Each structure stands twice: as structure tokens, then as C-alpha cells.
Amino acid sequence: MSKELHEQINADLQAFQENPVEFMNRLPVKQEAQAGVAAAPFFSQDALARHDYIEARDLFRQQAVDSGKLDEGARALFLSNDQADRLTDSFSHAGLLSMENSGLMSARLAESPWSDDYWALYLGVLGKRYADPSFPKSSNWKVNFDYIQSNSAAFILASGNQEAINNLSPSEKYDILVGDRNYSLTKQMWEEGRRYYERYGTVETWMGICHGWSPASYMLARPANPVTALAADGQTRLTFYPSDIKALASLLWAKAAPRAKFIGGRCNTSNPQVDPQSGRIIAQDCFDTNPGTWHLAIVNQIGASRRSMVMDATFDYQVWNQPVLGYSYTYFNPASYMVTNSLAAATVAKANFTNDTFAAYRGNQTDSIVGIAMDVDYIVETRPSHQFPDGPHKDAVTRVNYRYDLELDFSGRIIGGEWYQNAHPDFLWTPAKGARALPSWEGRNPINPADWMSGQPIPSIWQQIAAITSEYGKAPMAAITERLIQLAN
């Protein structure tokens, strides 16, 4: 641990000791861990003040539940019996000593999830012509839509202007690739925003498909290079840049994802009741993921299972459904408020913890308590572009600091804990290892991605399935998306 980090943790603990209520209401410290061309933030400062992120979080969760994409059997209750083992691929470590002995106090995935845009609804989702210098990129959905209507993809295609064709949106290129003269996928993309615009007169800028990008970023390989594909007409050549392919992958996983393993509840209260002495949120539904569950989940999933998961911590404009890249933690003594590298020195018996801020909330089975200072690296969205090759060096990574303690039973097993800040990970989720996003119509008509040969138009039967999947599933075909990724690599 660096001297600077050691001093920062001790300063945080001192601030908590002096005024726990004030510290509990601070936002976690965040810093850019790796520069990238970061996308525009989800939430403006005004939207944050209105607590719009609560609506966003609830909308995502409700849509996922209604569609059956969340495994409610894995839902935890934010108590000491939160079921982290129902989330992780493997559950090898239930105690801090086991984690330390296995070298899991820090871990970073060997293969990074890839950054991508969140493909906002107000910009047309995948209908956004991100490379077109004349595309308005207005905050007004209708301004963007009217531009597309006045400069249709069909007209641009007929013009034969290769540069303009290259600058078409990901969905327009896809529609041309599959020979869909109705541009079904593109129409569905603009329809996503139209519903909100006609009802409310606006489309909120936070609405997008980050819930598709986040799992796609580690469930599918990174597309590194452009792919030149022959369209269904047998003449038009289309260039799918890495950003185009990522867009199709994100949409596929937003619309056709399999069920996900999930830990987290539902809190629709903008200002939940708090303990006036400690600043701790009292409402159980709004306490969010228990720190014991969080610690067990991240160490067993990222550290032991070596696979990402998605965390939602909508306490500010940047963090929403974000894939986790890595973590590192050290201990602190929760009674003396001092950082230490020794587990033994950080462990305080519950019976001797006379200055415990959270004494009223400790579990009955708690034998001892250990403080944890953790840094978490997660992938954030980037702006799409025609740049290539794509690689981990192009990703945007943010680091956030969390402070909490863990409750241990007599055997040293983690059974709960308390957050030292109210802004912390809300819910955690991931598709099962090896799961595949597959639109229903395509699932009834099994297709081998390898049947599409490089340099050839897609097979005719694919063209029919693609049109139906775009119209009714609002998604690209999995076979086409996965084949583009293969060709890009």
C-alpha cells in the first residue's frame, strides 16, 4: 500500500469518527484509473437533485423482472444471510482468512470487459449516426429524428456515396446487410424514444441500453477490427467498425438476454429514513446490498471465479450498470479507526467494541468485526467512433473507494456488516457463465454463425429471420452479431 493511500484511508476514518452522519452522506471518492473517450454522463446535476436515478434504477429492474430476465430466486434480503453464493460462479471463500491465504485481497481480470456507448434513446439508440458530422446530437429527440427522416438511409444508399454509407448508424448498416428494405431495426430504434416523447414531450438523457452493454462487454469477445461485409443485394459493401459491432452486441443483450443471477431489492424512496445518530439508512429495503454480501460476491466472482459481474450504484451520474474489472482491499481496526495490513490487528471482538457506531444493528451471531477499505475498478462508457484497432487501452476505467466493516461469526465466516457511506453498490447481477443471448424466433430456428462465409451475403433464410427478429424482437440476430465479432478478430 502506498503512503498516500494509507494516509487517505486514515483521514477518511478520522472524518467518520468525528462526524459519522456527515461522512455517511459523502459520495465515495472516485478517480480516473485509465483514460478513455468517456461518454456523456447519464444524469445532469439537476436530475441528480431530483433523484431521477431512483426512477432509472426501478425502471430497469421492473422491465427485467417483467420479462423474466432476473432470477428472483437469487434475490437477497440485505441481511446477514444474503446469498452471495447464488450470484457467483463458484463460492470458495466464506471468510477473510481464507481469502488472504489464497492471495485474493486484490484481483484484476486478465481480459477486460470492453467499453462502449450506452446508446441513449434520445439519440435514436442504434439509429444514432455517431460518425455523421451533420447529425444534430440534440437533447431534443425530435430534432434528431427529423434529421434522419430528411436524410434517409435509403437515399444515401441509392446515392452510392461510400463515405456517407460508412457514416450510417449501426442499425441502418444492419438493415442494409440483411436486405430489410423496411429498415425494421432502425424504425424500432427510433420508436423507443417516440413513445416517451409523445407522452412526456421529452426523452430523458439517462435512458439507454447500458443494461445490454454491461453483460455483453464480458459475455462476448471484444471486436478489435473493422469488418467489410457484402450486403444482401450482392453489391453494396458495408464497413462495420468495432463501435458498430459493439452496438449490435449491446442491443442483442438488452433485448434477448437470458435470465440473470441477481442480488438486490427495490427501493423507490427518494429520502429514506436514517438514524439521526449514525446517519445509517433505517429502511431495510433501501439499505441495499449488505457489505458482507458485497465482499463475498466480489472476491468470489472477480478474484476466485475470474469473471466479471455488473454492479449498480446509482448514487451519481456516472455509475449505473457497470462491469467490474478488479478490486483491492486492506483492513482497518473499526475501534481505533486505524488502517493495518494485519487481519488480527484489525479484528475487534463484539463484546469489547464499546464505541461501535452501529451497535444497535449488529447481528446476534456476530462474534467479531473487521474494517475494510476497498478500491474497485469498473468499466465506464465511451463515445463510439471509427477508430481501430480496439483494445483494452481504449477502455475508460474508473476507480471508486468504499469503506465498510464486516461481521464475523465465531468461526470467522462473514455473516454481515455495515457500510460507512450510504452511497454504495445497490444491486449486483450477472448472466450465468456460458449463457447466450438469443432472440426467440432465432431460438426456434437454430443457426450456425459459421454458415455465413466471409465475402458472401448472409444466407437467404437468415434474411427472413432477421426481418422478423428486428420487427418483433427489436434486436439483431445473435448469429450475425457473433459472426461479425469472429470476423473482427
Task: Describe the overall structure.
The protein is of the alpha+beta class and 489 residues long. It folds into two domains: 3-116 and 258-431, no CATH class; 121-236 and 435-488, no CATH class. It has helices at residues 3-18, 20-24, 45-49, 52-66, 96-101, 141-150, 153-159, 162-166, 170-177, 184-200, 210-219, 242-255, 291-304, 343-346, 440-443, 460-473, 478-488, and strands spanning 30-34, 70-71, 106-108, 227-230, 237-240, 260-263, 310-312, 322-333, 338-340, 347-349, 368-380, 396-408, 414-419, 427-431. The strands form two sheets. Strands 1, 2, 3, 6, 7, 8, 9, 10, 11, 12, 13 and 14 form a twelve-stranded mixed beta sheet that branches. It is elongated. Residues 72-81 have low confidence and may be disordered.
Question: Which helices and strands occur, and which strands form pairs?
Answer:
Elements: H1 3-18, H2 20-24, E1 30-34, H3 45-49, H4 52-66, E2 70-71, H5 96-101, E3 106-108, H6 141-150, H7 153-159, H8 162-166, H9 170-177, H10 184-200, H11 210-219, E4 227-230, E5 237-240, H12 242-255, E6 260-263, H13 291-304, E7 310-312, E8 322-333, E9 338-340, H14 343-346, E10 347-349, E11 368-380, E12 396-408, E13 414-419, E14 427-431, H15 440-443, H16 460-473, H17 478-488
Parallel strand pairs: 2-6
Antiparallel strand pairs: 1-12, 3-8, 4-5, 6-14, 7-8, 7-14, 8-9, 8-11, 10-11, 11-12, 12-13
Helix pairs in contact: 9-10, 11-12, 12-17
The separation of the N and C termini measures: 38 Å
The average pLDDT is 89
Give the quaternary arrangement of the chains. single chain
Shape descriptor reads elongated
Secondary structure tally: strands: 14
Specify the biggest β-sheet: 12 strands, mixed
- Which strand-content bin applies to the residues? 15-25%
User: How much helix is in the residues?
Assistant: 25-40%
Class of secondary structure makeup = alpha+beta
How many helices in DSSP terms?
17
What is the rounded Rg?
A: 24 Å
Count of folded domains = 2
Could you list the spans in which at least 5 consecutive residues all have pLDDT below 50? 72-81
